[in-house]
Amino acid sequence: MAAVKRLTQRDIAQLAGVSQATVSLVLNGTPLSRSRIPTETRERVEKVIRDTGYVADPVARKMVKGLNRILGVFTYEPAFPSGQADFFTPFLFGIEEAAQSLGYDLLLLTGAGQQRKIFGDNVRLRLADGCVILGRKFDNTELARLVAGDFPFVAVGRRDDAGGPVPYVGGDYAPATSALVERAKSYGHRRIAYVGLNEGAESTVDRWYGFSRSVGEAELVTSIFEVGRPPNEVLDILLSAGATCVFVTELADAIAIEHAARTRGLSIPDDLSIVVLGNHIRAEEPGRRFTSFAIPREAMARAATEMLVRRVEHDAPVEQLLLHCEPLEGDTLGAPSSKIKKTK
Amino acid sequence: MAAVKRLTQRDIAQLAGVSQATVSLVLNGTPLSRSRIPTETRERVEKVIRDTGYVADPVARKMVKGLNRILGVFTYEPAFPSGQADFFTPFLFGIEEAAQSLGYDLLLLTGAGQQRKIFGDNVRLRLADGCVILGRKFDNTELARLVAGDFPFVAVGRRDDAGGPVPYVGGDYAPATSALVERAKSYGHRRIAYVGLNEGAESTVDRWYGFSRSVGEAELVTSIFEVGRPPNEVLDILLSAGATCVFVTELADAIAIEHAARTRGLSIPDDLSIVVLGNHIRAEEPGRRFTSFAIPREAMARAATEMLVRRVEHDAPVEQLLLHCEPLEGDTLGAPSSKIKKTK
DNA sequence: CAGAAGTGCTAATGCGTATTAGCAGATAAT
DNA sequence: ATTATCTGCTAATACGCATTAGCACTTCTG
User: How far apart, in whole angstroms, are the C-alpha atoms of residue A309 and residue A289?
Assistant: First the structure.
């Protein structure tokens, strides 16, 4: 309706019959300077502020102070599309929760266009005091620039050095994977397979590292370093290699393999144990519950947010934190059937 | 680590032997003013910029330009908790999509505590250029203040006047409900019931309005204006009233009623048709698909965001938009069985 | 009763940029 | 030769706020 003219401190000052400086002092004066403003005046100003709903312009504030009590959230992939929703939602929830309790608002950076870049001509990121970065795969050039620069940020998920240590909070996938391997071995599995990528994103590498350091040479019977291959084909390879247990990085693959196996009349876990490395999708999925480990997404996001605030407020040094991933019992890992054992 | 002093245009100017104004003009002068700077000078400045890696401080830039290109998102209920997730996620997705394509970032207001108020002390809504408001039920006092004020906002969901017309984008529930009633009647239903609230939130009122204007006096055999009543009790009432078809506003109630009916050996839709007024939860729910209508949540959110930007950028007048809700075929609405027909 | 200390407030300044008005010199037009 | 136009640049200002120095006045101190 009326012109989109933002209220300024000058307007407030005029309404309250004081100067702009006084308004500013009322809003955020030090206890020292505050004591020089009598209660009467302060209340008069505060009333006008309340009545008008005035809030200091964060841009001007940022110009002079540097801080805004706003945290940026940058996601390399669009955050909400349904496909990604189950992946990002817990993170966003955790970030929101922590931000709220720390008194920060969230600036969701929409990535402006097709290419999501932190450093575009839209460096709007800097409006925030700092930034949480989400995504399966990061742009390493940008990460290096961030590390080199002086803008506070924290990554969710472990990141390799990028011209310096990257502050992050991640899931401790390697030991979690190792633990599952040990569990499989203690069940008697001696012919184990791996299906999934073994390089690329750090999270992938960590899983493979944890797996390979616990599996002996003799025990790893086959590995399929790709995702989304036709399940029957995968199953053929597994069976002909005599695998009694398969570790799968992607839940979707695990589901497909399990389905294929059942179709052939195989029993799980008797004829083939399946272990998934991380609960990628909602846990309440109906039907079979895969043996896996939990990824504490909300806790990771909360910790990352708190770490970020530490960096923003106290210029804290770079921290790197890996959170424990609890094993999920599930019902797809068991002792191999004696029949298969014999064929070995 | 130590706060390295950012390069400013003044530094660039000094290095290039020109004034700050010239640097600014080189960076973003109009073709008009640009033509007044000889190539030689421009290239000298550009070289310095390239060599130093200077980037204009976006904060200062915004300061002088006025708008922040930020849209606020205010939700009356916390947005992310899993219970609400299915309700809010499509909206957030739509908002994000539209904001992105329009070049806006999103400021998620974290609501800071238990009571969510727009005009609280620490709600810094006004950081944004405008605001999208989400929620099942609004605070009418606040809405009135918003309407009276000059802060651009758009509500998602129809809203009654609050001291003036409220700009909104909603779902057109009344005709969608009417259409389902007509469909039921054309199947031969003459004894129809209604289960759900009929007053309160606008969306509720619209459903009841659409229902009651299409159902004749004689056809409405009973109505239960409450939610969450024990399903067996509800079913008793429906059956003793001789209803052949029941309209339910809450999916949860519909599920409960359907379950109770099946338990008693009733067949749906033969013995009892069930119509749900709106797909409140994810459509891909396994099992029975209720006859209902689709709520175009993403489209609503997109339209609301676009409307908001229109208001922010061009000071556009208040608009009110209701989007069509497509009927969902489902399999819980069919012709009443002749047996029941006879009992009538 | 002079000086010190305290009180209540404001003018002035700077943050880094975009933008406008306009200056000095050169060239063209009359 | 005088004015008009163009060229190449810069000074000055505004954006909205936080912050410092300090003014005018009152009250206390010795």
Answer: 37
